[in-house]
Amino acid sequence: MVRFLIKRLISLLVTLFAVSLVAFAIIQLPPGDFLTSYLTNIAADGQTASQQVVDRLRENYGLDQPVYVQYAKWMGNILSRGDFGQSFEWNRPVEEVLWSRMGMTLTLSIATLMLTWVIALPIGIYSAVKQYSPGDYLSTFIGFIGVAVPDFLISLVLMYIAFKYFNQSVGGLFSPEYENAAWSVSKVLDLLSHLWIPVIIIGLAGTASLIRVMRANLLDELRKPYVVAARARGLPERRVILKYPVRVALNPFISTAGWVLPGLVSGSIIVAVVLSLPTAGPLLLRSLLSQDMYLAGAFILLLSVLTMLGTLLSDLLLALVDPRIRYG
Amino acid sequence: MALEHNEPGGISSPEAAAPADVIMPRDTRILVASQWQLIWWRFRRHKLALFSAFILIVIYLIVLVAEFIAPYDPGDYSARYTYAPPQTLNLFDTRDGQLSFNSYVNDYTVEIDPQALRRTFVIDPETRIPVRFFVRGWSYKLFGLIETDIHLLGPENPRDRIFLLGADSIGRDVFSRMIYGTRVSMTIGLVGVLISLVLGIFLGGISGYFGAWIDNLIQRSIDFLRSLPTIPLWLGLAAALPLSWGPLQIYFAITIILSLIGWTALARVVRGRFLSLRTEDFVMAARLDGASQMRVIFEHMLPAFYSHIIASITLAIPGMILAETALSFLGLGLRPPVVSWGVLLQDAQNIRSVATAPWLLTPAIGVIVSVLALNFLGDGLRDAADPYSH
């Protein structure tokens, strides 16, 4: 086990290096750099910047140096001082910009995740045990809708309904009067009254696919002889199902649970954009579009690290839960 | 059991069937049926998949003859009809107290809202615009070859305008645009899947067939690609497309970006199949016969799981359609003047426009129907792909 862990950690480091290269390449990909898009933007506002100012800015940001020097500086600062650089657009350190959004992002993602699991697992078990019952057909139907309808569309439709019939504003996570207010009981209540829409929308697709997977896994298990044997021995039905088949059917979940980690951070970008949520997703999109490269780079790096850590965690969890799995 | 059909509780094993002469022909038919025949028999029992296949055929027909079905050119605008609401197509006329076949739509009357100073359209039940089938309209080239100006339906007088699904912000016909959008949206997924398929089969095949270090190398690169967060990856790549590119270049760039997501999954499927087939007797036989390695892979092994590949492809297309829609919706994918469902939905991006013109959301129906149909079809194909299984 320890050897396995060490091996995995080493390969993790190698992959990390490759990922950092790719992250840097992605943020370098768009033609031009932050300054060009900055200049286009201010030109659109009818202003111009003199060549001198441009050159000074370029030097300040280190954009006049060759790419590999920029990369080395970037990585060097991260590794030595945990300094992810300065966000050009926000004119603040990248960490600060990131963390300012992280609280809301995590709240939203964790709320969604809990809801997804709490709803999907019982329904999945139900539709497997009662295969081809009306309830099973209903959940299959909802499942397919959840998979087929793009989430941003559901948000648009829900927004329309809330706007038209309930006269409620649904953008954002707070009513305007609480937006910049200090935390208080009423602010939390306001948050809760807004939180349910994004939670439902983001949760729907996840719930739908989770139900499908749970149902399929459990159906495979239920046909196995050990279930028949358990039943033949007179075990109560609830125990027959919950004790072993459900446990085994959970394995594929655990092996993909790690993928949840990066999702927690990026959130559902598109839904967040449509509903103008103050989460990390729109920030990432914005940083990519405006070529705020250190912010975007930090984001991609963070997400990749979380994906890899998540996969590792899943593997370890799987070993804990399923004693049949051994590591070579 | 896979082999019985049409008969509830039918007999499926040859031994049991032998005494009953009536059942004999069917069972012998099964014994000599080709694999594709068996797959078809299995597939057609999945009614939902069969129905989905029908829907998809209709959709792809629309792709082929979009110009014929669309009453207007998708770029055709008319500022007079900004946000005109949908008109209902009436097939029968009951005006004179008797039913007669006379298709028409009701015309609008325009009222100016004195407060908002906005034009509002009211459907006027008194006036009607006759609508005919196979009318002459704008001319186009069917299949890019045959010059014609016949359209499936349109106003009898070409100067009238009808909006079956309403009009958008500059008075373009949403119905025509949606029909045209089908073309791009339904093909972009195909091209993307094709690219990922080629990559997937080639790399997955090598990986599974040769094993050893090559397998290790390819598997590690798949792991690596999968450890990259997909959404930022697409967004980054899509944001990287130069603004100066033409619509066609963007289209291909987007398909390639989309296929980057797809090929790793397909490669895994193909590799798994190769690994399990590698030890089969027929592969050994081919090898002993002195067939070259490429021949063993492409002539002997690949045909053994064509059906699985088809099923995985069908299941991969919806993801691409959704990805295109999402990317275009965010303004990172296809851009006007290209007409795709995602581009059309961009008009419905904020609550204000959805509130004024909810019909701008109709292209979404295209997305939902096609994605659902492809999912059901894929499910049916996957079940039928291995007709020998339980």
Could you name the key traits of this structure?
heterodimer, A: 328 residues, mainly alpha, MetI-like fold, two-stranded antiparallel sheet, 16 helices, 75% helix, globular, B: 390 residues, 4-stranded antiparallel β-sheet, 4 strands, 55% helix
CATH superfamily descriptor of one domain in chain A:
MetI-like
How much is the average pLDDT of chain B? 74
Outline the biggest β-sheet of chain A: 2 strands, antiparallel
Major interchain interface with per-chain residue totals:
A-B, 44 and 37 residues
Shape type of chain B: elongated
Structural class of chain A: mainly alpha
Q: Mean pLDDT of chain A, nearest integer?
A: 77
What is the string of helix and strand elements of chain B? HHHHHEEEEHHHHHHHHHH
Structural class of chain B: alpha+beta
Our estimate of the beta-strand percent of chain B is 5-15%
* Strand segment tally of chain B: 4
The CATH topology of one domain in chain B turns out to be MetI-like fold
| CATH architecture annotation of one domain in chain B | Orthogonal Bundle
The number of distinct β-strands of chain A equals 2
Termini gap of chain A: 9 Å
Low-confidence stretches of chain B: 1-23
Helix content of chain A: over 70%
Strand order of the largest sheet of chain B: 1-2-3-4
